[in-house]
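thought: user wants a sequence for this fold. calling inverse folding tool.
action: design(structure=
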């Protein structure tokens, strides 16, 4: 004697799965869950395979797959792992954007930003690392365009690119907004362009490339003298000034002018912001110490 296959009404499927009748009827109307039979009154009936199919539909929908993707899986036109991988990629991007939005909102609360600043922060924070890198590249392209500068030195300068983590802090978002505003500020661009022109005009980039590593030591010593209340004209200040002159090969007046022209708090701020964005160690403020050195050279 042949066994009779068990069938279920939509109401029974709803009780067994916990899904609303309206949802099951919707899946059936969309062709995802076709009825296996109908009653004499025309009501839809479903068998045990339909029950298993409904459970699969629910799982796929809970994972966030759209109806079209669910239909592809049910029709075996795509595998679950393939669609899951594609959906995971989209979900990761959505999570990244939500984290950025959260960081922007935290920065807005911290800064008590007005509407225009909020719009700017949101626009800049939504940029990709590639877009940020292009912004920096365009900046340096314009700073050295048509100039015979030392390629190694400027290659090093432009190699650093801002790269926010997937879950940036409000401070990193603020740093990026300030950085983007800085490199687009006409006065800052004029400052860096002027430095580049003087660098190209001197043609001595290589000489100072060799002494760049000593600057940390010189500025730290100058800062120590400054903190101790020593005047640039003190014996310590004059000894340090003489050391710089010997290393540079320039006279005191020319060296003081060269250092002074390159000593700007905004240029230093460029690297401090870059460090915040990229999670580097903090860049100390050397601007007052370098001013002290210039005064020592001119004393």
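)
observation: tool returned 299 residues.
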């Amino acid at each position: 004697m042949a066994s009779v296959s068990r069938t279920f009404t939509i109401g029974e499927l709803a009780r067994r799965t916990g899904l609303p009748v309206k949802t099951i009827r919707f899946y059936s109307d969309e062709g995802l869950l076709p009825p296996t039979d109908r009653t004499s009154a025309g009501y839809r009936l479903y068998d045990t395979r339909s029950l298993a199919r409904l459970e699969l539909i629910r799982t796929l929908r809970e994972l966030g797959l759209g109806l079209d993707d669910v239909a592809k899986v049910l029709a075996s036109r795509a595998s679950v792992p393939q669609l899951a991988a594609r959906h995971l990629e989209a979900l990761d991007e959505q999570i990244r954007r939500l984290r950025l939005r959260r960081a922007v909102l935290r920065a807005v609360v911290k800064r008590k930003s007005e509407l225009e600043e909020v719009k700017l922060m949101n626009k800049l924070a939504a940029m990709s690392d590639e877009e940020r890198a292009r912004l920096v590249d365009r900046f340096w392209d314009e700073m050295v365009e048509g100039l015979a500068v030392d390629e190694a030195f400027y290659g090093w300068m432009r190699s650093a690119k801002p790269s926010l983590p997937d879950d940036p802090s409000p401070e990193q978002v603020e740093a990026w907004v300030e950085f983007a505003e800085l490199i687009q500020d006409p006065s800052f661009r004029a400052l860096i362009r002027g430095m580049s022109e003087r660098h190209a005009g001197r043609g001595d980039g290589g000489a100072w490339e060799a002494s760049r590593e000593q600057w940390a030591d010189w500025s730290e010593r100058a800062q120590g003298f400054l903190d101790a209340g020593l005047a640039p004209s003190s014996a310590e200040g004059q000894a340090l000034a003489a050391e710089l002159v010997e290393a540079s090969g320039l006279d005191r007046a020319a060296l003081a002018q060269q250092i002074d022209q390159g000593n700007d708090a905004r240029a230093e701020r460029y690297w401090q912001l870059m460090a915040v964005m990229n999670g580097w160690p903090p860049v100390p403020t050397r601007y007052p110490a370098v001013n002290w050195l210039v005064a020592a050279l001119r004393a």
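thought: summarizing for user.
answer: Here is the designed sequence. The chain has three domains: 7-75, 81-119, 129-298.
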